[in-house]
Amino acid sequence: MDVPAALQPYVRTAWLPETAEEDGPRTASKLGGTAWIPADETWPACPNCGRSLQLLLQLNPDDLPEAVRGEVGEGLVQLFYCTSQDPLCEVDCEAFFPFSASVVARRVVPDGEGSEAVPDLADPFPPRRVVGWRPVDDLPVPEDAPELSLPDEVWDEVYRHGLVERDKLAGWPTWIQGPERPACPRCGTEMRVVFQIVSDDTLPILFGDMGTGHLTRCPEHADVLTFGWACT
Ligand SMILES: [Zn+2]
Ligand SMILES: [Zn+2]
Q1: How remote is the CA of residue 218 from the centroid of ligand 2, in Å?
Q2: Per residue in 38-70, pLDDT tens?
Q3: CB 210, CB 200: distance < 8 Å
Q4: Domain boundaries, the chain
Q5: Which Pfam families does the entry link to (predicted)?
């Protein structure tokens, strides 16, 4: 879309993952696949069903565009999610809300080879290793630019053509039910979105009815991360 002058200062770069159908090293940036696990740990499991969690995302700052490395911090960012349908852990554990028991969002600093743990999943997602990042211009939803007064037609156009409703690093979050930035449980600071995962983009996952999820991080505490999603 032609971005109106008033919106131009709000244009941010979002980075779309370009992926190959392979797992790659345990420390690689990837969606799905095998994560680096500390030597003294087992693969993360769900407290509700006891099964392995599915790795949704691992980000290694070495693989990221330089402009956003600081947002991710040192070490690997990992997001694991219970995909069990019976029991339906997503609902039992309210995985749409931040800090759900059936979701693990964490930072680990790789140290040596790590564990040989692999997930025990009947139907794991095919691994997709991130091999590049494609920059695109991204725009906010109106709730993220409350100081801007633009006609409804402009926002309609932003909704139609300006939002990047894809899996993406940085940029503006595409909120479905308005902004959801949790407060850090340690310091109360509003957490910042690191990565957006939409239903059925890179991963064959559906968050409710084609929902969109966000991995957030405390700007003060690199090891405080969480995930939540919303659908229409
Ligand atoms: Zn579960
Ligand atoms: Zn904090």
Answers
A1: 5
A2: 999 999 999 999 999 999 999 999 999 999 998
A3: yes
A4: 5-230
A5: DUF1963
